[in-house]
Design brief:
The strands form three sheets. The protein has a four-stranded mixed sheet with strand order 1-5-7-8. The chain has a four-stranded mixed sheet with strand order 4-3-2-6. Strands 9-10 form a two-stranded antiparallel sheet. By secondary structure, the chain is an alpha/beta fold. Helix 3 runs parallel beside helix 8. It is globular. It is built from ten helices and ten strands. It has two domains: about 60 residues, Ribosomal Protein L15, Chain: K, domain 2, CATH 3.100.10.20; about 200 residues, CRISPR-associated endonuclease Cas1, C-terminal domain (Four Helix Bundle (Hemerythrin (Met), subunit A), Up-down Bundle). The two termini are about 25 Å apart. Strand 9 and strand 10 form a beta hairpin.
Length: about 300
């Protein structure tokens, strides 16, 4: 599998399925096709795009989520599969029956990994991250001290500059981060579905109307590598300048999924690490293991923002 994220941005695009391929026509003219088995997610941002029930069904059978985005690059709607794993019922039952202490312990593992990754990113940019690494070691069950938020207050100014404010409704670098997180969210949702888990049954996130709450949980340790990519794509830290999210920058952000991270079975692309994480969570719910299979930093660890 090539883990391809297919994004539709053109007005007048029509999507269909034929002989195992997703085919795209724009204003009636063929524009390209991609093998469905190679897809990680379909992201639609062109408001004039159209697709058939058949293509939705074919993608669902392949565990490929369809993400429809709003103007701020964030998902507005998601079409996700409801079947496809041989032991899905058993795993979802165990997931639904999991108790609060277990969920809090698992959330702490995710937050520790996230803060460690933030420290890795800062150090990869030549910025001191020792205090964040110390904070990661202090994370307790359920992150009762809210160290995630404390780490974020130190992390963002060092990474993006003192004037930067993380705001999902803003353009520029914030829109680029939104786009990267949308990619991560879709890829994580695919891993969750492939593991036979339900994406709405979360460990921590409780937003009403959010069909992908578990994806929002499990993507946390991977977020900092999107931040790193956006940081490297911005030539300066002056975030007041316009950061144009053009085709090349989008392609570079999508390529984060192919970044090799340390994992439980050695270095593997991020998407594979996501698969391992989701599978490990299913085994925890079934009582077959106690901890998550979490990702580590890339090999070799990047040392400069341009590296």
């Amino acid at each position: 599998m090539q883990n391809r994220v297919v994004e539709i941005t053109s007005e007048g695009a029509h999507l269909s399925a034929s002989r195992g391929f997703l085919s795209v026509k724009i204003n009636g003219e063929p524009a390209g096709q991609v093998a469905i088995e190679d897809m990680t997610a379909l992201i639609i941002r062109g408001y004039g795009a159209s697709l058939s029930v058949n293509i939705c069904t074919r993608l669902s059978e392949a565990n490929v989520p369809i993400i429809i985005c709003g103007a701020n690059q964030s998902p507005a709607s998601v079409i996700w599969p409801v079947s496809g794993h041989f032991s899905q019922g058993l795993r979802m039952q165990a997931q639904a029956a999991s108790n609060k202490p277990l969920l809090k312990r698992l959330w702490a593992q995710l937050i520790k990994a996230k803060i460690d990754a933030q420290a890795d990113v800062l150090e990869g940019c030549g910025v001191d991250g020792a205090d964040l690494r110390a904070m990661a070691r202090r994370v307790k069950s359920g992150d009762s001290e809210n160290l995630e938020a404390q780490a974020a207050r130190r992390y963002w100014p060092r990474l993006m500059g003192d004037d930067f404010k993380r705001d999902r409704d803003q353009d520029g670098i914030n829109a680029a981060l939104n786009y990267g997180y949308t990619i991560l969210r879709a890829a994580t949702a695919r891993s969750i579905l492939a593991a036979g888990l339900h994406p709405s049954l979360s460990l921590q996130h409780q937003s009403r109307g959010n069909a992908l709450r578990l994806a929002d949980d499990l993507m946390e340790p991977f977020r900092p590598w999107v931040d790193y990519k956006v940081r490297t794509l911005s030539s300066e830290l002056d975030v007041t300048e316009n950061f144009d999210l053009d085709k090349d920058r989008k392609a570079a952000i999508v390529a984060v999924l192919t970044m090799d991270l340390q994992g439980p079975n050695g270095a593997s692309p991020m998407q594979i690490c996501m698969d391992w994480l989701a599978q490990s969570l299913a085994h925890v719910f079934l009582g077959e293991r106690k901890s998550l299979g979490l990702p580590g930093p890339p090999l070799p660890l990047m040392r400069t923002a341009g590296g």
